[in-house]
Specification:
The complex is a heterodimer of chains A (about 230) and B (about 525).
Chain A (H helix, E strand, L loop, with lengths): L1 H6 L4 E5 L5 E6 L2 H26 L3 H26 L5 H6 L1 E5 L7 H9 L1 H5 L5 H9 L6 H6 L1 E5 L23 H12 L6 H10 L1 H4 L3 H15 L4
Antiparallel strand pairs in A: 1-2, 2-4, 3-4
Helix pairs in contact in A: 2-3, 3-5, 9-12, 10-12
Chain B lengths: L14 H14 L1 H22 L4 H10 L1 H4 L1 H11 L6 H13 L2 H5 L8 H9 L5 H44 L8 H6 L4 H40 L1 H34 L5 H8 L6 H12 L19 H6 L3 H12 L1 H36 L1 H19 L4 E2 L2 E2 L9 H10 L3 H18 L11 H11 L2 H18 L7 H18 L1
Antiparallel strand pairs in B: 1-2
Helix pairs in contact in B: 1-11, 2-3, 2-5, 2-11, 3-11, 5-6, 5-11, 8-9, 8-11, 9-11, 19-20, 19-23, 20-22, 20-23, 21-22, 22-23
Classes of the chains: A alpha+beta (about 230), B mainly alpha (about 525).
Chain lengths: ~230, ~525
């Protein structure tokens, strides 16, 4: 069964720690990353424009300062945000993605600086073409800078929308369930508003041999098990 | 639709994650998807290019306008691949007319600029919905993913542009300056310029859109699949079916399982540890079998892979620096040698005053030490207090030693009598257990011997032997040996020995008190 699951396509990235704990993350691909970059570029451009207005009146000194500021923003905007904001520039925050080291530890100064300096190579020959090609070909969606620094961009979705559990008296499961089965039943209870009633009955009747019930009764019973698994007694 | 054969991991994902999954799908099934997308428009493109040689833009624009049609073939192949079905070329060719026909007019006219094209396409192509039904379905599907689908289209549009201009720039960068191409003549000469520019840019653009299209189609398809997983609970269905199958399998084994407890009970007192494990779970291999199996796996190919890696890498220079002294150390030594004479005379001068200086330095060190102790007196006091309480904590008598309850409360009053009565009831093991527990309990609570939770029986006996009177030591040694023989060796207890121990018990413990 396990090998079967390995073959299934997914964007999942797994790391096993020395303690034998498996950490997992969902890799982020070119589209969300490009959009996050777009937001960052817009923010940077806006900041540079706002700063340049008063500096315009400062003559050559102003121009010099402008150039320095532009340089710093261009190269260190991502570094500073990635290090101090848990791997998220404002654009990445909008798209709920984040940079981490490839062992899923938080990104540090060194790695962040490397990945953002190699941006230059990614940009070649025009508008991040090299980076895009690298991202599409690489199994972990890494651009050249990521490969050099050993970093990944992953999805960091915020807590999902709150759900309401259906009214059902808690029921003890009739047999021991493994983790995936428990998750399926809990999911069945949690998603009662998204799934249509007919579909819920259909799903519940798959387990007829276990629940010994049919139709709406089976649905209510399974919801009860779900509530029990979530701690209701 | 057989969900058990689905080739992507069915679980709830956000829309962006679904798009990324689409990219993974396109990468995995790249060849068929790319060829299926490329071949029909390429034929048309070449055909039109030759026919309308004077107007290259016509060929490109027509092919570009028909993109909603071209997207349908990879979608068809992707939808089959999703359920692990492979399609032959013949099947694809036979499917083409049917695929192209669906909602043709709408997709080529007012829906041509629909920003969620790749997300909407499956509803037309795979669900065959049109008109009212389609719009109702759309409104459900769009509720969550329309935003991402729109951005997907915009992003892919820009990807195409980046790929077009990028590859042109790349080619241009590779042409050496010495090669004197008459760019002016090619691009700006009035006669030929338009056609040449357009031919070059057409080729690059066509290449770009054909490379991006499979990703775009699959990303939209993945968004659509993701929405259906969410709406129809595919992940739940897959796991429920798995659970149902598992229980069906278990019921068939039911009769076998009934026998196991009977066998287990009857063998309980006689069996050694590993045979108990055997009866406990009939699927577990016997010790010998599993050993053989492990050997087999270990000698297998997976553990004997030899990988030869060739390549350039930096040589480690750590060793060399360790062996040779750094430059500056040599310089310092040389400096000292050069001025050694001066040093010598200086030494003589100083030696007289040195004795006094040494005395002062010692005084300083000692007073500094005392001052430090005084300065940190509070902290030191706390530290001492904490270590004391630590030792006190450790000295708290353990409630359990090697799984035996040794609290005083758990024992009856009259130990020897209880032990003998248990013996006569035909429970020799329990009898010895009680005696041994009582011994340990007395040692801990009355003689104040201190055992750790982790001590073994023999270690406890050794602790006693190290400091106790000869009588107590011999008693403890004897009972420990007997207990070990019974508990681990499953040997029978000779009655005499137990009686003797019971007789000695009050003597030993009252005398020592």
């Amino acid at each position: 069964m396990y090998s079967e699951r390995l073959e299934r396509l997914d964007t999942q990235y797994l790391v096993e720690t020395a303690e034998g704990i498996e950490l997992q993350a969902q890799l982020a691909g070119p589209v969300p990353r490009a959009l996050a970059y777009l937001i960052d570029v817009s923010i940077r451009t806006l900041v540079v424009m706002l700063l340049s207005l008063p500096l315009m009146f400062a003559g050559k000194f102003g121009t010099g300062l402008m150039l320095i500021l532009t340089f710093l923003l261009e190269w260190f905007y991502p570094v500073v945000f990635e290090v101090f904001r848990h791997g998220q520039t404002p654009g990445k925050k909008c798209l709920q993605i984040a940079v981490v080291n490839d062992d899923l530890t938080p990104i540090s100064w060194g790695t962040s600086i490397i990945r953002n300096l190699v941006r230059f190579a990614d940009f070649l020959p025009f508008a991040y073409l090299a980076g895009l090609i690298s991202m599409v070909l690489n199994g972990n969606f890494q651009r050249l800078g990521d490969l050099a620094a050993g970093t990944l961009v992953i999805h960091r979705s915020q807590s999902d929308e709150p759900f309401s559990l259906p009214q059902a008296s808690p029921q003890t499961p009739p047999l021991p369930l493994d983790l995936e089965e428990q998750m399926a039943i809990v999911g069945f209870a949690e998603r009662h508003q998204q799934l249509s009633d007919e579909r819920q009955q259909e799903l519940a009747e798959i387990l007829q041999a276990i629940t010994q019930r049919r139709g709406q009764e089976a649905v209510t019973y399974l919801r009860g098990i779900g509530a029990w698994l979530l701690g209701a007694r | 639709m057989d969900l058990s054969r689905i080739s992507v991991e069915a679980k709830l994902r956000g829309p962006w994650e679904a798009i990324d999954l689409g990219f993974v799908m396109a990468r995995r099934w790249w060849r068929p998807l790319f060829l299926a997308w490329l071949l029909p428009p390429l034929t048309l493109f070449l055909l039109l290019s030759t026919v309308f040689y004077q107007y290259p833009l016509v060929a490109y624009l027509l092919v570009w306008w028909l993109k909603p049609l071209w997207d349908r073939l990879p979608l068809y192949i992707g939808s089959r691949a999703l359920f692990s079905e492979s399609v032959t070329t013949k099947e694809v060719i036979r499917a083409i007319p049917g695929l192209f026909k669906k909602d043709l007019l709408a997709w080529l006219s007012w829906r041509r600029f629909c920003l969620t094209r790749s997300f909407d396409m499956p509803v037309t192509v795979l669900e065959n919905l049109s008109g009212d039904q389609r719009s109702r379905r759309m409104s459900i599907l769009h509720r969550k993913s329309a935003n991402a689908a729109t951005w997907l289209t915009l992003a892919c549009l820009h990807l195409e542009a980046v790929l077009t201009f990028g590859s042109m720039a790349f080619v241009y960068a590779l042409i050496p300056e010495q090669v004197e191409i008459d760019y002016f003549g090619i691009f700006l000469d009035a006669e030929n310029s338009d056609i040449t520019i357009q031919l070059v840019s057409n080729t690059f653009s066509f290449m770009a859109i054909s490379l991006v299209a499979p990703f775009y189609t699959m990303a939209g398809f993945a968004l659509y699949i993701n929405r259906r997983i969410e709406l129809e609970g595919w992940d739940i269905e897959i796991r429920f079916r798995h659970l149902a199958q598992r229980t069906r399998g278990q019921r068939q084994m039911g009769i076998k399982n009934l026998l196991i407890p009977v066998v287990f009970i009857s063998m309980c007192f006689l069996t050694t540890a590993d045979s108990v494990a055997d009866e406990n779970n009939d699927e577990v291999l016997s010790q010998k079998q599993s050993k053989e199996f492990i050997q087999e796996v270990l000698s297998g190919e997976d553990f004997h892979k030899i990988v030869v890696k060739k390549g350039w890498r930096l040589k480690s220079r750590d060793k060399e620096t360790d062996e040779t002294l750094p430059e500056w150390v040599i310089q310092v030594v040389e400096f000292i040698e050069r001025f050694s004479d001066e040093w010598h005379s200086f030494n003589k001068l100083v030696r007289g005053g040195a004795k006094g200086l040494e005395f002062i330095l010692w005084i300083t060190v000692i007073s500094l030490f005392i001052y430090t102790l005084y300065y940190y007196r509070e902290g030191l006091r706390k530290l001492l207090a904490s270590t004391q309480s630590d030792t006190q904590k450790v000295k708290q008598a353990p409630a359990e030693l090697f799984g035996l309850d040794v609290r005083r409360e758990s024992l009856p009053q009259q130990i020897p009598e209880q032990v003998m009565s248990l013996w006569h009831q035909g429970e020799p093991r329990k009898a010895l257990n009680l005696l041994y527990r009582a011994t340990l309990s007395r040692l801990i609570n009355e003689h104040k011997y201190h055992f750790h939770d982790g001590n073994t029986e023999q270690e406890c006996a050794d602790i006693i032997a190290a400091s106790a009177a000869a009588e107590l030591t011999s008693f403890v040694n004897e009972i420990t040996r007997l207990w070990q023989a019974v508990a681990y060796g499953h040997r029978a207890i000779p009655q005499q020995q137990l009686e003797l121990l019971c007789q000695r018990w009050p003597e030993v413990f009252f005398h020592a008190k």
